[in-house]
Design a protein that fits this description.
With about 70 residues, this protein is mainly α. It is built from five helices and no strands. The longest helix has 12 residues.
């Protein structure tokens, strides 16, 4: 699974829009859109916030499955 799929899954499970997820992570809505389109990858701070707020393991974002 690639990072955009993981982020999309979090949004669906938590019923978050791009804007709501951006607000939760402290990034701009266009940044979330770029992640979802695969044009940009989340940075360290965003990866950390995805883990802290939603329990997303960083390895999952990097495509490393256990």
């Amino acid at each position: 699974m690639i990072y955009s799929d993981v982020i999309r899954e979090v949004m669906e499970l938590k019923q978050l829009s791009q804007e709501a997820l951006a607000r939760e992570l402290g990034v701009h809505q266009t940044t979330v859109g770029q992640w979802l389109m695969g044009k940009k990858k989340p940075g360290y701070d965003s990866i950390y916030m995805l883990y802290r707020k939603f329990g997303v393991e960083p390895n999952l974002l990097f495509g490393i499955e256990k």
